[in-house]
Design a protein that fits this description.
Serine Threonine Protein Phosphatase 5, Tetratricopeptide repeat; 13 helices; elongated; initiation factor; translation initiation factor activity; protein biosynthesis
Length: about 300
């Protein structure tokens, strides 16, 4: 036989621990001849024990930080906040398969014509692309769709100036220069956001923490990838790309306090060129018309060891 059958082993009876006989209990009782302390109360001892048990069972409330997220009722929000909330909801469910249907629901005249909503929407899209760089192409495609929608609104208002949309745009054209530029709001908002990224990149303080340095690197890589996706869809100009390259590589095309090209800078430019390389080569001379032939790095550059 392969296995030897064994009989059932009887389980050992466990002895009760700390079991006292009646004689032990009586002997222990006789040791107490007086109360342990003045004003001793058994009721108070039991009450204290119950309160302590209840206190341990209670879960302490979380303390909200100054900028912590707070769920707000829709009744407390104004029209701009509700529109931005709708944009955020669109990004949360946006995929390649449902792109057309979801974007069609999200588009509205207020998204383009309200400067606060447009700026907030662009910031939300940039932050989403930075958090999910894998889907930066989809978010750039969303920006392109908003740009096309803007052009459709302008065309509709031009063809029918007496319509509600036409009258609205006519009233807005009497405002300041930014308000009058009805056909370039989306592009301007995207360029301004790219400018903010460029300025923050130039003025980034040195990090002495490895974890903080890695987070900064990932953020820069995600940002530059999204900038490249916008460039591929002609949403930002060739000059914007030249400005980024000039700053990162210290080429001297534009004035910048940055004096050193680091390995992180080179990695960022490689990431950018992986996205826009072919298109950038086709337009290589387009953005150099405003740069003089004598323009050259007038500052001393330090080449990182990884680039030698």
């Amino acid at each position: 036989m392969l296995f030897n059958l064994r009989g059932i082993v009887p389980q050992k009876e466990e002895k009760v621990k700390n079991q006292m006989t009646l004689a032990d209990i009586l002997a222990f009782r006789d040791t107490w001849t007086a109360i342990p302390e003045p004003n001793f109360s058994l009721e108070r001892v039991l009450l204290t024990a119950r309160l302590e048990t209840k206190r341990k069972a209670e879960i302490p409330k979380l303390v909200m930080s100054e900028n912590g997220f707070r769920v707000r009722d829709k009744k407390e929000m104004n029209a701009a906040e509700l529109e931005l909330r709708r944009v955020q909801g669109t990004l949360n469910k946006l995929t390649d398969k449902n792109f057309d249907a979801v974007v069609e629901e999200a588009l509205s005249p207020d998204l383009v014509l309200n400067p606060l909503v447009l700026k907030g929407a662009v910031n939300i899209i940039f932050n989403k692309a930075m958090a999910e760089p894998v889907f930066s192409g989809i978010y750039a495609q969303l920006c392109q769709r908003i740009k096309v929608y803007e052009q459709d609104l302008v065309t509709e208002a031009t063809e029918n100036p007496t319509s509600e949309l036409g009258q609205l745009m006519a009233s807005m054209s009497t405002g300041d220069e930014e308000q009058r530029n009805l056909n370039g709001r989306v592009g301007n908002a995207l360029v301004k956001r790219c400018q903010e990224f460029h300025d923050s990149f130039v003025n980034q303080p040195p990090t002495h923490n490895a974890e903080a340095e890695e987070q900064l690197r990932k953020r820069n890589m995600a940002n530059i990838k999204f900038v490249g996706e916008l460039y591929m869809r002609t949403l930002i100009s060739h000059r914007v790309i030249l400005a980024v390259c000039s700053t990162a590589l210290v080429l001297g095309f534009i004035s910048s306090p940055k004096l050193v090209t680091t390995e992180a800078d080179l990695e960022m430019i490689v990431c950018l060129m992986n996205v826009i390389g072919k298109r950038f080569d086709e337009n290589v001379n387009m953005g150099l018309n405003h740069v003089s032939k004598e323009a050259a790095p007038s500052r001393t550059r330090t080449t990182p060891s990884g680039a030698r």
